[in-house]
Amino acid sequence: MQKAHLYEAILSLNRGVDEAVRGLERLKRAKASQFDSACFDEELVLFEDHRARLNSYFCSALQRTEQNDSVRFEAQHREYEKNTLDEVQVYRDVRLVEDRRRAEGKPPKVRFFTPEEQRDWERQYPTTPGDVPRAEGEANQ
Asked: C or N terminus of the chain, fewer CB within 10 Å?
């Protein structure tokens, strides 16, 4: 059973107990009945006791499952992080390669623009709004 189904089943069980408790309380309040209200009180306590025990069991079992899943997914995420280069690391790697090439007397394969060169390049090759994906939350221009 998938997680959502498990949690829905627990919710359904608790709703069922709520419904049973409401039914017992209505019967207890019935004016023209010959029912002994003490009997209803005892049954209400039993319903709530069973619900509490079941919920305690479900929470303990699910906590172990969730902790195991958390450990497993954390390990998977660490693998993704190890295999994914961030932009700073890419910049450092390119800089290292270019420094090696310079030390060997070879011409650069990559050249970093100065801020002025970057502005000139952007004027020469303007981007259209469809060329660059917008960052989330960026306003339309």
From this structure: C
d(CA 56, CA 102): 67
Q: Are residues 66 and 32 in the same domain?
A: yes
Residue type, 28: K
Residue 114 token pair: 């100065």
Q: Is residue 134 assigned to a domain?
A: no
Question: Can you tell me the distance from the alpha carbon of 77 to that of 51, in angstroms, rounded to the nearest whole number?
Answer: 37
The number of folded domains in the chain is 2
Distance in angstroms (rounded) separating the CA atoms of residues 38 and 95: 82
Q: Contact 117/111 with Cβ under 8 angstroms?
A: no
Sequence-distant (≥ 6) Cβ neighbours of residue 21 within 8 angstroms: 44, 47, 48
| Separation of alpha carbons 41 and 63, rounded Å | 33
What DSSP state is assigned to residue 132? S
Contact of 93 with 100, CB cutoff 8 Å: no
- Rounded CA gap, 68 and 62, in Å? 10
Q: Does 132 map to a domain?
A: no
Instruction: Name residues whose C-beta falls within 8 Å of residue 141's C-beta, 6 or more positions apart in sequence.
Output: 129
Q: What is the pTM of this model?
A: 0.53
